[in-house]
Amino acid sequence: MIRTSNILNIIIALTTLALILYWIGRFNGTDCFAWFDYFISFGTLFINLGINILAAFGK
To answer: What pTM, to 2 d.p., does this model score?
Structure first.
């Protein structure tokens, strides 16, 4: 059975991914978008996911 904390971690990861994709879609055609922002956003997402996975295994 999936614990409530794991469900919340999945929801947080999906909403973070949706926010990043929204930013990319919004700024992609303008001069305001930079590849640096892209890498920072996805880096933050994957670091967050890694921490959540390690926390889930730690019980």
So the answer is: 0.56
Distance CA 32, CA 26 (A): 10
Helix ranges (DSSP H) in 1-59? 4-27, 35-58
User: To which residue do tokens 């590849």 refer?
Assistant: 35
In tens digits, what is the pLDDT along the chain, a chain of 59 residues?
777 777 777 788 788 888 878 877 777 777 666 777 778 778 887 887 787 777 777 65
**Tokens at residue 34, please?**
């930079």
Q: How is residue 34 annotated by DSSP? A: -
> Distance between CA 2 and CA 20 in Å, rounded?
26
